[in-house]
Amino acid sequence: MHKLECASMCTFGQNWNPSETVRLTARILAKQKTHPERTHSEKLLAVKEFESHIDKLDNEKRELIQNDIAALHHFYSKHLEYPDNAALVVLFAQVNCNGFTIEDEELSHLGSAIFPDVALMNHSCCPNVIVTYKGTLAEVRAVKEIEPGEEIFSSYIDLLYPTEDRNDRLRDSYFFNCDCRECITKEKDKEKLEICKLNDPPSAETVQDMIKYARNVIEEFRRAKHYKSPGELLEICELSLDKMGAVFEDSNVYMLHMMYQAMGVCLYVQDWEGALRYGQKIIRPYSKHYPSYSLNVASMWLKLGRLYMALNNRTAGVKALKRAIAIMEVAHGKDHPYISEIKKELEDH
Questions:
Q1: Global model pTM greater than 0.85
Q2: I want to staple 214 with a disulfide (CB 3.0 to 4.6 A). Which of 20, 223, 228, 254 is the partner?
Q3: Structural domain ending residue among the three candidates 239, 268, 285
């Protein structure tokens, strides 16, 4: 696969910057050319059979796909045979709907991939399996008892958020509303949107205004990450936490979201004490809001464990790393290299 990109990388040098989606699509086209029959990862579902939701794409999404097609031609023109534009629109729409984000044990982004057979699973906000990665392999493990004949559900999205936000995300990326038990009962929403216990509680209108503010600041921060300095990003986090804290409890998911972003900035600038302070506030509510075997909870225990170790608090570090391992042994499997790595960290300390 590297041959596909090597000459192009040499030609463009520093200007070689196709997006991950473009690179992935180029590789799919190359693979389909060299391997026209089904691959071993298409036993149940072929890439050509992927759902594209082409009829549901709005103008903005179509424009983004045309930009990707232009980049594909720009960076790969000498090395690929292309189908026509209409077929490329379908392929990019299929990749957008069926792609997987690959992350490491701390949920740092590594790349994108497609796993056709794994993409066959439907979504639920109370999933009974978790998908993890070992090199270029996707592994699916049960995190609940599954009866014979029972459907297997994974989760396509981050499950921290309340029902309305989860379904906004599902509609935007996958074009459906979820009708799982959690979305119908909304039983976790009250805890996830916990309001400060004040003598004079905030009005429903004040709460709604703050939820609207929280959603806007989350989007503002997402955009700001591309061009603002760490100091400026931390200021956005601190100001928004201060403002939201007048209405929301620390365990409110919008507070947790901004704390998590602040923790990320602290880690980036190597402010270990600052990162630890945020992590300590996050971990308990995370354990309550997420399902039992959550990679988000495992990665937070892992980050905390490594921070404690770096700050010479071995007792707390060992305890946190063991909590991470307990979840990861179920989610990743006991023989996963990540687990061996963490156990080695425990021995070395």
A1: yes
A2: 254
A3: 285
